[in-house]
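Reading a protein record of the kind used here takes little practice once its layout is understood. The reader may check this reading against the record printed directly beneath this paragraph.
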Amino acid sequence: MENASKALIMAGSVLIALMIIGALVLMFSNLTSYQETNTRSTRSAQITEFNNQFETYNRKDVRGSDLYSLLNKAIDYNRRQSTEGTGWSDTGEEIAFEPMTITFKLGSDLNQLSADGTKRLIKKSSYTISSTSNDFENSIKGTIDDLEDEYGSDSLSNLGSNLTAIFIDSTTNVNTQNDAISKFNSASKKVRVTKWDEIKPGSTIRNDIYTYYEYIQFKRLHFDCTEVKYNNKTGRIVEMIFTSTGEIN
């Protein structure tokens, strides 16, 4: 009888132990599932947060000034690739960084940026930015900075707005020349002129203002986002393409 009782106690102990083990296994399984769900949710939120930085440009009627900001944002992301671009897929596959690529197409609208048909600053009908160096900005920034230092950005904007009134075709009419000189000096604060030769066609000042005018026109040019590509593993935006609409205002 006593042996039977001991056997029942032992069996009960084993059963309780098995139940505890089963409960622990179930808890561990649930915890693992919860952690995986939480990880996926966190990753999804991170992807959404990342994409939102760029989705704001995924629209029609993006100005060149906005596009200029986007290029710098994309380059900044590409430079921080070691912390921003790596990770793992939901299946545990390690995913390498993929740089952001931005392409904008000017096409024949490139001609609208020039004041006289000569391309001085922006010379290509299409630009693609895909590395850690903003080739578009690098190609114009030095020139823009030098002009702004010499003339002042406000004066350059004023001169660009009065382009046709100030930078008239070559003329021998002294009154017309003097009127152009007066209008130049009214618009310009840092650089003053006293004679027509200083702003006549082919002059250094005229070429400078025409160069900066292309920059002004680019910032006012409108683009449509025509294509967005996503990484099929991470869901992150990896490429955006913009096409000029030809509208400038």
